[in-house]
Fold this sequence. Notes:
By secondary structure, the protein is mainly alpha-helical. The protein has a single domain, classed as Alpha-lytic protease prodomain-like (Up-down Bundle). The chain is built from seven helices and no strands. Helix 3 (49-71) runs parallel beside helix 7 and helix 4 packs antiparallel against helix 7 (175-203).
Amino acid sequence: MPGCNHSHSHEAAASAANPGFRKVLWIALIANAAMFFLEIGASWQAGSVSLLADSLDFGGDAANYALSLFVLGMALQTRAKAALLKGVSMGLYGVGVLGFALYAAFNGEVPSYTTMGVVGVLALAVNVGVAALQYRYRNGDSNMRSVWLCSRNDAIGNLAVLGAAVLVGVTQAAWPDLVVAALMASLGLSASVSVIRQARGELRGEPPRVANEHGHSH
Length: 218
């Protein structure tokens, strides 16, 4: 497709060993771990499922960045196995958030839109910053691609949380919060399928594929 960049397997391997990418992963790990602790407390205080989903996503991403750092520079097969594990974790996250949203639909309350808005802006700033740092590495192997997809989806999710905060404030109802939580779950499930598909291909010996800016691989 127009605008898609293609790379060869040796280029992807060289990028994976890039010290600049390692530095970006450390920054992302620290930022996501800090936001996990901040946001999980705010989500309970606000009674917001979308904030809870976002906090769990920050925690999962911090763990994924740690895993990426561990396998960085290792053989493609090892990195593909790590990406496969991350893909499965993305899927579990999606299923878990859907479960929380279903529970809240019957037992929840109207969340605090003020807290949602303030924390949502902070989370968006963190994720946009991390995604900007990772942008140049988005066309690497499945391990690098999974890192990029995490940050891209997080930024989209933060925009959705901010939209939900506005709608909760206008409607004084919980449904915008639940809709956004379901959207974030669907993003996690979609990324899970994409990363697992590419990782399995690399485990079969296929060269690393690259993704265009919409997340489709070629």
